[in-house]
What we know:
This protein is an alpha/beta fold. It has two domains: 4-54, no CATH class; 59-358, Alpha-Beta Barrel (TIM Barrel), CATH 3.20.20. Helices cover 24% and strands 23% of the residues. Strands 17-16-15-14-13-12-10-9-21 form a nine-stranded mixed β-sheet. The chain has a four-stranded antiparallel β-sheet with strand order 1-2-7-6, with no helix packed on it. α7 packs across α8 (274-286). The longest helix is centred in the C-terminal third of the chain and has 14 residues, at 235-248.
Amino acid sequence: xxxxxxxxxxxxxxxHLLEDGRVQCDVCPRFCKLHEGQxxxxxxxxxxxxxxxxxxxxxxxxxxxxxxxxxxxxHFLPGSAIFSFGTAGCxxxxxxxxxxxxxxxxxxxxxxxxAEPDIIAKTALEQGCSSVAYTYxxxxxxxxxxxxxxxxxxxxxxxxVAVSAGYVCPEPRAEFYQWMDAANIDLKAFSEDFYYKIxxxxxxxxxxxxxxxxxxxxxxxxxxxxxxxxxxDSDAELEAMTQWVVENLGSEVPIHFSAFxxxxxxxxxxxxxxxxxxxxxxxxxxxxxRYAYVGNVHDKQAESTYCHACGELLxxxxxxxxxxxxxxGEGSCRFCGVKCSGLFASQPGAWxxxxxxxxMD
Length: 361
């Protein structure tokens, strides 16, 4: 477990001293170079005593129980309840951030809820959850807190789910994902120009994370792309992205195309038309993606799962509510017997669409 040096503050190990006396944080490819007392872009990692510490261990922006489909994960214990929490701050600077009040927070008062890892795991189990999600902001920046919680969850038989942009360096990435069972990775676009100008990051480290997850771990993962009108919604970019996914990750990796709404520093853009999401889904399917979905809009057909072999409906979804279940106890199609990719219980969960805030004090 993590070693405390002060209240809410823990030592970290992914950093090194520079010749000029600053300390470089090596958790993510931003490589923030910090003077004494200075915080990184993420806000929660700080140079304190010539080492990088995490300043928000055990503190959260809130706890809630969600349907797992909200992460979104459609092929990992569908219908089940997932215990969700996050902290504050983020290591990217997306102009379109849909959770900016949490991810862009620079006030520690955002982190009013408190819970140690073992309490989170125990509470999740008592509330009937099958898994715990590290979400709302990116768990890369609360690496130590997330890992300790995932270890506590594993001891109780709970799964761990990372909801992340995948912007992380190789060594901390390997440590982090050895404790994760599933992930949803936000592939924000398929253009370096988009990543640099709109997120303040780079595309290549995200692609490397995706390839790592596919080829070096057993983590089940799905992708999400927020479709922003005029920014990442061209046919050419969607063609390139979905072709890359099939060629490098495989046809069985699900992709969720979600609708953008104007927020944070991108209020000049219109909401994403449903037609744009359906076009993206169609391009993905044409290029060999077996499971392509739309999100943040209501379209039961495009939210549901179909057998890639015979085309029959496997899992019907109406928003976050399951309406049909045509998988056998092994997760195979009841019509043709072909396996559906993912992790499925013998029966679907019954949590439905409700969200339940949880007080931990």
